[in-house]
């Protein structure tokens, strides 16, 4: 009996869309606490971390860009150096080729000169020898002819001067005879 | 005694009543005192769990996050990017901490509705939705006055329309912006949680009522309990959705207050 | 959401004002009827203004 009246009383006190004021108080305190802690100690730090992360990424990108630029510059420099070296090499090769040509020409002309010189020397020597031989022959032929003539004639050709003149005349006659021929 | 989702086959009250939502004090000396009941216990537990979770997982934040840190961050990142920035724009980041707290708090409070042995959401007591709705309400009005000064009244109440119909429109604007908004926020959340709990009660207690009435009805009772499990999954969707909706609507009201053009 | 709030808001506010007028003049619901119609029309106007075209 009492419990029934109690139930009835309770039934009438609770309306689901009328809040209990105790719960309003407690809920406000609870939500206040959670807001205070999370909004002060947790989410701002997350925001900070996000920013640090963005910074890190952007910094990384910047660094990478810088490195890229540096690398490009280096590459450009190497390329320039390379092409410089290439033209240098070409120049050196051309020079060398020119030099070699010059040396060849030099050597050639020197050799030609040498050979000319040798030929000339040989020719001179030959001429001198020939001269000497002719001279020798001339005197020898003269003596021999005089000896022979003296033996044939049986008498000494006393008159040296006349005989020499005779021989010379003879030889020059020979010469002229040879020349005419 | 009425109340309590009594898990004893005998003497189960059916159908469930509003009184099933008002449980007696947990403290043995408390009787029907409401300062410390299952609902307020769950409230304090929600606060404690959320604070501990975030403080512990974000004790030593690192640039390259650990798994725990990543999870906590993605909750904040979700509300920050998908609600605050999406609805309010760049300056929405300012409100992201509050919106995230709001979202997490509602979600946790709702979640009790399907956690075994708790199985009632504190948000099924309208007091808590009312607190949150009032905070959102005060907040968007305050922000409006801070942004526009006294011009906020014109900003909020006077729509772009010819002068002669303004007298008809202004009361409607007032009604829909300053009365319907907090009311619908609170009632939507409360009603969803209330209905969720009520459904679970109906199917759970209904199972017991039928098995008590006639042993032949046992298969139907079992079907009823299976339905309870299915409804628990459905409830999870409702829980997440309601937390999201409350947060999004708060963000959109803030946006309306701080935007330059009318709404 | 906004649309529903404007529609219902319009009808409730002007219906309510109409009801007050009824009380005052002792007419039987005619003020409320007119109010609700006006409020509904104004609500439609506001929704179109805010959301549409």
Concise summary:
The complex is a heterotrimer of chains A (181), B (263) and C (53). Chain A has 181 residues and is mainly alpha-helical. Chain A is built from 3 helices and no strands.
Topology:
The complex is a heterotrimer of chains A (181), B (263) and C (53).
Chain A lengths: L1 H12 L7 H133 L6 H21 L1
Chain B lengths: L37 H20 L9 H22 L7 H16 L15 H22 L2 H7 L8 H48 L4 H41 L5
Helix pairs in contact in B: 1-3, 2-3, 2-7, 3-7, 4-5, 4-6, 4-7, 6-7
Chain C lengths: L1 H24 L4 H22 L2
Helix pairs in contact in C: 1-2
Spell out the helices and strands of chain A N to C: HHH
How would a textbook summarize the main sheet of chain C?
Answer: none
Q: Stretches of chain A where pLDDT falls below 50 for ≥5 residues?
A: 1-12
Low-confidence segments of chain C: none
Structural class of chain C: mainly alpha
Residues in β-strands, percent of chain A: under 5%
Structural category of chain A is mainly alpha
Overall radius of gyration of chain A: 67 Å
Number of domains of chain A: 1
How many structural domains in the coordinates of chain C?
1
Rg of chain C, nearest Å = 12 Å
Count of DSSP strands of chain A: 0
Name the chain pair whose interface involves the most residues.
A-B, 38 and 48 residues
N-to-C CA distance of chain C: 18 Å
Which range best describes the helical content of chain C: under 10%, 10-25%, 25-40%, 40-55%, 55-70% or over 70%? over 70%
Number of strands of chain C: 0
Order of helices and strands of chain C: HH
Membrane topology (chain B): Multi-pass membrane protein
Subcellular location (chain B): Cell membrane; Membrane
Function (chain B): Key component of the proton channel; it plays a direct role in the translocation of protons across the membrane.
InterPro entries (chain B): ATP_synth_F0_asu, ATP_synth_F0_asu_AS, ATP_synth_F0_asu_bact/mt, F0_ATP_A_sf
